[in-house]
Amino acid sequence: MAKTPRACILVLRLLSMAAAVSAAVVMATSHQTTSFFNIAIKAEFYHSPSFTFFLAANAVAGVYSLFPLLAPRAGLGSRWVVVLDVVVAMLLTAAVAAAGAISEVGKKGNEHAGWLPICGQVSKYCHHVMGALICGFVGLLCHTTVVLHTISTELDPLLP
Amino acid sequence: MAKTPRACILVLRLLSMAAAVSAAVVMATSHQTTSFFNIAIKAEFYHSPSFTFFLAANAVAGVYSLFPLLAPRAGLGSRWVVVLDVVVAMLLTAAVAAAGAISEVGKKGNEHAGWLPICGQVSKYCHHVMGALICGFVGLLCHTTVVLHTISTELDPLLP
């Protein structure tokens, strides 16, 4: 691999790590207490299993990001980096998709199911969750770029 | 690659295609009309964007599955198969995660958000969606096994 792409990959890996850690932190700090017709409403990220999963997946991805930077660059170590990179990409995809699906219901509701939107009542909480989702999406994008670049350039061109 | 693993990969690819097509068909046929206290309730998969996305993603994966079976086995064609395999794996992951997150709310509700479970009223619909999710998950599992096996065995062991 040329020197410039390797530097780009390193920058993308660091960006991905920063975005994943930020996503986990922003989601962990997402909470709001408000009142609606004198009824106290408390919104916390752990009220939704999808948001808890989002936090856990991004925390795992953040910690994992150290592994490719420390793993040996040739032989089996390098293979494991690519395999684990794909697994982490799928984990981040699942996290963003699940949290995104629930956020969409939180924002727009679902009239057919009788689920009302909640973002009118807990807008600060919704903005916080949206921030976490954006960080998670940026991290996923950087990580996916690294994975696809690695596979497309380093796959054995003579494979059967 | 030895003869037996190649046959296994072919079987897994065919299984993955069958599961993805089944998931799309089962989701597309998920609907139920019932009444609750004389109020007509109609449940259709397209009432939820996540279920529509699930159907589309599995249909795309089903059609794509033909590509690796027809693509040339050496050189650039083979590289593209691996890159697209990873993209499709992420697409299927997103579909299963998003549809799974909404199904979980449909089944258990979310008392904090005031979203009531709907599966008590439209149980046939919920079972249908669950069937689609199981098919989608099996397809994702088969496809992921193929992707990880290909990467772990066919990545250039001398890559820098």
Automatic annotation (TrEMBL), chains A, B:
It comes from the Eukaryota. The keyword Nucleotidyltransferase does not apply. It is a multi-pass membrane protein. Residues 1-23 form the signal peptide. Keywords: Cell membrane, Membrane, Signal, Transmembrane, Transmembrane helix. The chain crosses the membrane at residues 51-70, 82-102, 130-151. It holds the Pfam family CASP_dom. Residues 6-142 form the Casparian strip membrane protein domain. One of its GO terms (cellular component) is plasma membrane. It is found in: Cell membrane. The keyword Transmembrane helix applies. Homodimer and heterodimers. Belongs to the Casparian strip membrane proteins (CASP) family. This is CASP-like protein. It comes from Vanilla planifolia (Vanilla).
